[in-house]
Specification:
alpha/beta, single chain, 11 helices, binds NADP nicotinamide-adenine-dinucleotide phosphate, two-stranded antiparallel sheet, six-stranded parallel beta sheet, globular, TIM Barrel
């Protein structure tokens, strides 16, 4: 059974959650049912993933069938970049709650620290000035109303997080980090990972996930395959000794998702520094 970390709200977040990005139609519902059966108590969703309706149907079934109670699950979702105008934030959560068939979220995140025109696609010419303080006030109201029992962000650099902390009445509970398997290509092909996994008698995925937990992070592996999602939560009752953990930390750190394509002469972000380090 998964362990938990405690958020600044006092709520407990399970240390392993099921990722749902690219868990497609006709597949994601079965993945949710299999994950709950396998012991997952944490599901990471987002409006962007375009699968919240199917996840909602699957969650309703596990609750109705008495497999698990709503209060024993931890459900996260995220506000997409086109819904960041303060007046759109309450509409965004209503839409997500409706699709997920839930009365509240355990965690609601600002998906990216960039805003695009309402109804538009993410593309350089569609960025607009993100008024973070006003948007965060709208997010804080969701926390006040308990529709979101914790609120947070995702993809924030240290600079953007510091700017947010300077104005927040309700400090963010989470800055989500993700793709704990490096979308499997990174993890499966790294000789440090594969050799240590072999020493431990674990798979590369299990070693990478257990390392994340031992760093104090909640990990969100995505799998829509029953045997792999079981493998990805089989992380308890064993641990990585300190000396092997240290070897993992020696691997060169590279930011995998930089969003270089957002930087463009027609974009409000003309350089990668402006994108990630500019004023909010
Ligand atoms: N906040 C954000 O901006 C953001 C961005 C990206 C992701 N996320 C969240 O983080 C979650 C995880 O990230 P991710 O989905 O990008 O990548 P990931 O979890 O690092 O990797 C998922 C890939 O690994 C495969 N896989 C999973 N377990 C495996 C195993 N034990 N052995 C071999 N292959 C395995 C999956 O395929 P199968 O399904 O076929 O097993 C899938 O192709 C997302 O689903 C999403 O919930 C958040």
């Amino acid at each position: 059974m998964a362990t938990y970390f405690t958020l600044n709200t006092g709520a407990r977040i399970p240390s392993v959650g099921l990722g749902t990005y690219k868990a497609g139609p006709g597949v994601v519902g079965d993945a949710i049912a299999a994950a709950v059966k396998a012991g997952y108590r944490h599901i990471d969703c987002a409006r962007l993933y375009n699968n919240e309706k199917e996840i909602g149907v699957a969650l309703k079934k596990v609750f109705d069938d008495g497999v698990i109670k709503r209060e024993d699950m931890f459900i996260t979702s995220k506000i997409w970049c086109s819904d960041l105008a303060p007046e759109d934030v309450p509409l965004a959560i209503e839409s997500t709650l409706n699709d997920l068939q839930l009365a509240y979220l355990d965690l609601y995140l600002i998906h990216w620290p960039f805003q695009i025109k309402k109804g538009s696609e993410i593309s350089p010419e569609n960025f607009v000035q993100f008024d973070m303080p006003k948007t965060w006030q709208a997010v804080e109201k969701l926390y006040d109303s308990s529709k979101a029992r914790a609120v947070g962000v995702s993809n924030f650099t240290t600079k953007k997080l510091a700017d947010l902390l300077a104005i927040a009445r309700v400090p963010p509970a989470v800055n989500q980090a993700y793709a704990p398997l490096g979308r499997m290509k990174v993890v499966a092909n790294n000789p440090v990972v594969t050799s240590i996994a072999e020493i431990l008698g674990k798979t590369p995925a299990q070693f990478a996930l257990r390392w994340g937990i031992q760093q104090g992070q909640s990990v969100l592996p995505k799998s829509a395959n029953e045997s792999r999602l079981k493998e990805n939560i089989d992380l308890f009752g064993w641990s990585i000794p300190d000396e092997l953990c240290a070897k993992f930390s020696e691997i060169e750190q590279v930011k995998q998702i930089r969003n270089d394509s957002f930087v463009h002469p027609q974009s409000m972000y003309k350089t990668i520094e402006e994108l990630w380090e500019g004023e909010i």
